[in-house]
């Protein structure tokens, strides 16, 4: 199965200001690891959309299930050199699953590859339920209640979304 998530910010003390449910970094870190691993198995692949850890990412990455496609965020000093990462990008990544085209990026975009044909955009960075309309999905842990979203859940979500602003109606 494929999953999407972003903006863990492991060991980032300032995140406790915007995540008042946690009283310590340890509590926040452990909750995020537990939530992630309760949904993702060792056979799954997760698109991680940036801002993974404030400190060394390796100890956290090694505790998470599955493999990763890692999109670097503005707080990621480097992409971890880890066998769990099967692909990485410093910007964005265009791909498809079945016939559905999609783009993953740390930042939301106004237009992306094939957006005019209703391709999907999965993004992070915005630590709220920010919604930019169209076939877009904010994948921050804050917007997803600290649990990754699966491809099947994303498809269901996108079914009820309006067309992208630049959609070209096909006859």
Q: How would you describe the overall organization of this protein?
A:
By secondary structure, this protein is an alpha/beta fold. The protein contains four helices and nine strands. It has helices at 15-18, 25-37, 58-61, 151-159, and strands at 2-5, 45-48, 67-71, 85-89, 92-97, 100-105, 120-123, 136-138, 149-150. The strands form two sheets. It has a five-stranded mixed β-sheet. Helix 3 links the parallel strand 2 (45-48) and strand 3. The longest helix has 13 residues, at 25-37. It is globular.
Provide a brief overview of the structure.
This protein is an alpha/beta fold. Helices cover 18% and strands 23% of the residues. A hairpin with a 2-residue loop joins strand 5 (92-97) and strand 6.
């Amino acid at each position: 199965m494929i999953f999407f998530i972003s903006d863990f910010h492991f060991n980032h003390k300032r995140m406790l200001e915007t995540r008042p449910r946690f009283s310590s970094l340890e509590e926040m870190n452990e909750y995020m690891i537990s939530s992630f691993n309760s949904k993702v198995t060792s056979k799954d692949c997760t698109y991680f959309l940036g801002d993974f850890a404030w400190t060394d990412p390796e100890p956290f990455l090694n505790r998470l299930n599955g493999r990763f496609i890692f999109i670097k965020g503005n707080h990621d000093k480097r992409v971890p050199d880890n066998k769990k990462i099967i692909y990485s990008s410093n910007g964005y990544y265009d791909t498809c699953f079945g016939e559905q085209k999609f783009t993953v990026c740390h930042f939301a975009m106004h237009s992306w590859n094939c957006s005019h044909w209703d391709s999907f955009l999965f993004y992070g960075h915005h630590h709220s339920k920010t919604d930019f309309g169209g076939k877009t999905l904010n994948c921050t842990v804050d917007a997803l209640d600290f649990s990754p979203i699966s491809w099947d859940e994303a498809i269901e979500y996108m079914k009820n979304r309006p067309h992208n602003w630049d959609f070209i109606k096909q006859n």
